[in-house]
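It is worth pausing here to work through a concrete case rather than discussing structure prediction in the abstract. The textbook approach is simple: state the sequence, then state the predicted structure, then interpret. We follow exactly that order.
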Amino acid sequence: MEQDNHLLNSQEPYVKIPGSERKPLPYAVKSTPIHPDEEISATLLIRRPPVTSFLEKKSISPLTPIQHLSHEQFMASHGADQEDLNKVEEFAANNGLTIKEVNAAAGTVLLAGPASAFNKAFKVQLAIYEHQNCTYRGRTGPVHIPQDLSYIVEAVIGLDNRPQLRPHFRIFEEKSEPHRNQAATKSFTPDQIASLYHFPQNIDVSNQCIAIIELGGGYHPDEMKQYFSSLGVAQPVLTDVSVNESSNQPTGNPNGPDGEVALDIEVAGAVAPGVKIAVYFAPNTDAGFLNAITTAIHDTVNKPSVISISWGAPENQWTSQAMQAMDRAFQDAAALGVTICCAAGDRGSSDGVTDGTVHVDFPASSPHVLGCGGTKLFGSGQTITREVVWNEGPDSSTGGGVSDVFTLPSWQTAAHVPLSADPQTNNGRGVPDVAGDADPATGYQVLVDGQQAVFGGTSAVAPLWAGLIALINQQLGHPVGFLNPTLYNLPASSKAFHDIKTGNNISSNEPGAYKAKKGWDPVSGLGSPNGINLLNALKGLQNS
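Step two, the predicted structure:
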């Protein structure tokens, strides 16, 4: 898109930030320039010493427990340099912007000020765009930065505030799915699903904290008490954390973000009874998401050891600078011993993109998170009678495939990740890593906004795995942290997974796509968990 050349005329040389280019949402129309005095904010990502040495060590010795860094050690060795922060502060002051927050450990600086100041400081033209689903503040083309800051500032995120992510849940509606026979539908409470997956039982996890990222909506504390009381399990201890002035604000609509919030809390809290849950409420923008993640990872008060993320979007709907910024945060989590569980998406191999090819969902496609795919589960008590890939059509099936952005990680080389089924036949990171029940017809019984409902979607699988990891962390006496290299190197004899060999996530009109097979596959990953076997396998590594 065109950008006025006069914006770049300056005595001080400016350069564009790689990967910062934005296009309008499809069918969005630019309506008016933004009012010059409108107060807005943006997040700058500041360079820091990388944590790559830690990650390399984990990849080389995947079965060896790694000593994680404390928050204090991380800040001392990987925090942003004060001189760099001073230069950013000077730049802000010279351009009429103020610094609202600095997270030196995460290397983020939140700037605020009038839109006209941001236009001038970053050589952009912010405008209001109208779309059938929303009105947002947007820009086209790249963001620019003074040349003397180009090695310090890696990304500028949040100038565009379009809704960036969507929740990955599906509500079961019998009327809309008449083709299903009665035998194909049976819902469960989350603790019943935990029993089917042999989660460790009777473990005091009151010292463990699960972080949940939410980008809208909220929950009612009294309703949560009612729900866990009805299950007869210990209540989680809930803490709300406000990010960028967002807060716990239920909308009253269970079909909206309230449904996501309730599902996440109720699944995680039911499978890990009595756990602490910190809910990070943030705006549904790329900057809001980044700030929620970095706030949770570097939270020295709640200190979560596992983070559940049930929101995402196709890789091609992100700027590359935003994905790299978030992946850097996920690498921080690995060094600190924090596991990130991400839903792989609910729209099959296309991830809901209508361009006739395949896509995977981010953040699940980051190689530094545990991507969680979906299955259809049958069973009772502790016996699984059948489990297949969840696929009830293009708008109700597990995400999965091969990343177009992230290269194949070393720990996945023996998993026989296929080339992408898109025209580029890319050799990239395979998604997902693991799986769990996600079909709404065999879904989770939840309570939201006064209504009983059955939810599915990979949104349920992320908190399910987060709860399991909290149980494992408690039993091991330390956080497992970045688990992927270890999981891919566990021997089949450990029986840590139920291998899913039936089904696919082929969306209508998509080429090739992906099918289940023996071992890892790009629809169910390594499979669904056997919690006790996984715990014992990790215990064995710890004691070897």
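Step three, interpretation. The first helix runs from residue 52 to 60. The radius of gyration is 23 Å.
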